[in-house]
Amino acid sequence: MQKDKFSIGVLTLSDKGSRGEREDTSGVLIGEMVSHLGDVVCYQVIPDDVATIELTLCRWVDEVRLDLILTTGGTGLTPRDVTPQATARVLDYQVPGMAEAMRAASLLKTPHAMLSRALVGVRTNSLIVNLPGSPKAARENLEVLLPALPHALAKLKGDPSDCAVSDAPGRPG
Predict the structure, then answer these.
(1) Rounded to two decimals, what is the model's pTM?
(2) d(CA 140, CA 134)
(3) Residues 40 and 68: beta-carbon distance below 8 Å
(4) Rounded to whole angstroms, how far apart are CA atoms 51 and 41?
């Protein structure tokens, strides 16, 4: 059972979405999927622009002090897919296991998963997760991380409890 409620931001990266030419279904879906973790206090659709992405991520971490930021879009190979570059520039460190877990699960569904450049990392005490732009892929990738997110966020907030304690029945802690 979850004790803490976390503050969450959902950031959609889409040139068309930012101009009102496309409805943001991925960002809305992501917000619904994490609502049990806390409150989505920031939601925005911005263009695929490195400086704008960096500025928004930094503001949400440094000023708003969000616990979790989930981005959607811009993780592929097109010239406008710049989310990983912008994210890398603001992170203190990466959490590669989470990004690898998303790609590994996605590879079971499509070979195109190996083209994902999504990052997961930490700035200060905030976890930043890059998710794909399509609603289906965003949902599938986020589902992989959901079981680990409460623990990761609690640790970032300073939870001193031992990580080695097992929740699995019949397994030693």
Answers:
(1) 0.92
(2) 10
(3) no
(4) 22
DSSP-assigned letters across all residues of 144-165 = HHTTTHHHHHHHHTT--S-TT-
User: Within 10 A of 133 (CB to CB), how many other CB atoms are there?
Assistant: 23
Q: Where are the domains of the chain?
A: 6-156
| Mean pLDDT for the stretch of residues 6-31 | 97
Query: Letter for the amino acid at 145?
Result: L
Domain topology for 6-156: Molybdenum Cofactor Biosythetic Enzyme; Chain A (3.40.980)
Identify the CA nearest to 28 among candidates 139, 144, 146, 105: 139
Is residue 145 within 8 A of residue 129, CB to CB? The reply is yes
Q: What is the pLDDT of residue 161?
A: 83
Confidence of residue 4 (pLDDT cuts 50, 70, 90): confident
Tokens of 152: 């990761």
Please give the single-letter amino acid code of residue 7. S
pLDDT of residue 172: 47
Provide the strand spans (E) within 34-133: 38-46, 68-72, 93-94, 120-123, 126-131
Check pLDDT > 50 for residue 15.
Answer: yes
